[in-house]
Specification:
Length: 126
């Protein structure tokens, strides 16, 4: 149940990030857009599970030197990578550049954080 909730939370967060110019969900029916959001949410989870630990390991000096601020850039680049991978997999999700990816990653992170807080309160895990 926890993985399903995380995928749905991430899908909602990605949907919220489409307010940024340069992040596009593509045309299609509502069902197609929901399918795309779920596919992108799964892709984000996969990228964060596989690529992000490698980047953190090999770039740990940069994390220390910048007091973690490089993490914002890394998250933006990973979001941009997710947009590229989505296109390669045939999902109509596009991220057109670094700055839309940067701000989109921030929006996804903040929205996911807020929705997880709400979910924890609903479940009774204050």
């Amino acid at each position: 149940m926890g993985i399903l909730v995380q995928v749905l939370v991430t899908a909602i967060a990605v949907w919220v990030s489409t307010v940024i110019p340069g992040i596009d969900l593509g045309e299609g029916s509502t069902a197609a857009k929901i399918g795309t959001l779920i596919g992108v949410a799964l892709l984000i989870g996969l990228v964060n599970a596989v690529v992000k630990p490698l980047v953190k390991f090999f770039g740990c000096v940069f994390y220390i030197v910048t007091l973690g601020l490089i993490g914002l850039v890394v998250n933006g680049l990973l979001f941009w990578l997710t947009g590229w991978l989505a296109g390669e997999l045939g999902l109509p999700f596009t991220v057109t550049g670094f700055w839309p990816a940067f701000w989109g990653a921030i929006i996804v992170a903040l929205t996911s954080w807020a929705l997880n807080i709400v979910w924890d309160r609903v479940r009774g895990n204050d």
